[in-house]
Amino acid sequence: MTAMQWRIWWLAAFGKFFEGMVVFMTGVALPLISAEFGLGATEHGVIGAASLAGILVGALALGGLSDTFGRKFMFVVEMVIFMIFLVLLSVSPTYLWLAVFLFGVGVALGCDYPTAHLIISESIPSANRGRLVLAAFGFQALGALAGTAVGYVVLVNDPSVTAWRLMYAAVILPAALVTVARFYVTESAPWLFARGRASDAARETARLLHRHPTYPHHVALKPCPTGEGAQGRAGSRWRDLFGKRNRRATILASVPWFMQDLSTYGIGLFTPTILAAAFGHGAAVSHDVTDIVAGQVLAAEGAALIDTLLIAGVVAAVMLADRVGRIPLQILGFVGCAAGLMLAALSSYYADPTRTLLIFAGFMLFNFMTNMGPNAQTYLLAGEVFPTAVRGKGAGFAAAVGKIGAVLTAFLFPILLADLGTTALLIGLAGTALIGATVTWMFRVETTGVDLERMHQHDLDTVLDSAAGEGREAA
């Protein structure tokens, strides 16, 4: 790994960090926002879903643009958009503008889903691809923990209803530093070559691999057997995702992602709210600022403890993805998520302290298994199972479908929580996790250790069995 390769990795990792930080910090900020603007359950759901809806639009509308304008260009543009809306978010004058600015922040984060993955995976050796992509993705969990921690620190030092503005403002400076640094990375050589720009691809490859002492001394590129370099603009069409060649990949990349986002974002975003209710603090109905802040401080402490299991899950994914394989980990993770949700659902049949213990145990098991399994593996697979010419569109489409699930659960969670209760909601989410495991098995394509260009010499149906064998051998 050269200095440039590590620079790309770190800058992509911080994009995931900001996503986890902003989305999960919203969980701490929501009761304060609700108190300041006098929000009801529906408006509460809109605020919770706004950034996730933006991620959906950004992944679909902007993520695919990396196939047209380049990975680096969109890598920079997304951070500029993020910065603009982050500043506006911290000074939002009304509930409506707050929702608009959260949506704008989400658009930038959505673009980062495919772009960050691709700029890493197309710039590093295949043998390290799984570990490094997932390690960068793991910064989402670090961001979630950091977002909860920032919310806690701000509340302790500024126990006022407007403290949520400082939470978002705290992200501005680090985001500005990352934005500037992204101007100085290399463009993806595989993308340049797929566009027929062979000389530019060779030049960027030389920059990417530059080290002291110089090695290699000379860079020469040749067409891969797929003929990607000759496809040019004609090879990058949305309809190609649903043709025979890529249909299996599209289903595998998108449907399980939808299923896991239904539960992951619902649980992650509303963990502080659920814990506040479990601890006896009626933050959702109280109008006293002191009660709201006290409940959220206690809930933030509990959420921080639970969120540490997100990090543990990513560490497990990094260690196992290139050894066990993407598909087995995704299936195991889905089953584990269902078990954790059912464990938390059982808490309603017990009194404290057993009730609290079951809630914590269930949520902690869920967080560990989702990040070891579907939350990490769906992201990894979406950037690997498509050919270079449509990889940005494929990864963007999969992320967008996933975020449809996130938006649905974020908007409906407060409403369903009030109408159905915690138990029924958790049991329903456990069912969606089992559906995700089933779809993963039916449309499985193992990409572990397989060179992405070699993998797409044939239709994915043809390489299904051989890819799994080659992956185990490479690992």
UniProtKB/TrEMBL annotation:
Pfam families: Sugar_tr
Transmembrane segments: 9-33, 45-66, 73-91, 132-154, 166-185, 262-285, 297-319, 331-351, 357-382, 394-417, 423-445
Membrane topology: Multi-pass membrane protein
UniProt cross-references to InterPro entries, sorted A to Z: MFS_dom, MFS_sugar_transport-like, MFS_trans_sf
Domain of life: Bacteria
SUPFAM superfamilies cross-referenced by the UniProt entry: MFS general substrate transporter
Compartment list: Membrane
Keyword Transcription regulation (UniProt): no
Domain Major facilitator superfamily (MFS) profile: 8-448
Key words, A-Z: Membrane, Transmembrane, Transmembrane helix, Transport
Principal location: membrane
Family: Belongs to the major facilitator superfamily. Sugar transporter (TC 2.A.1.1) family.
Protein name as annotated: MFS transporter
Native source species: Ancylobacter radicis
Native organism taxonomy: Bacteria, Pseudomonadati, Pseudomonadota, Alphaproteobacteria, Hyphomicrobiales
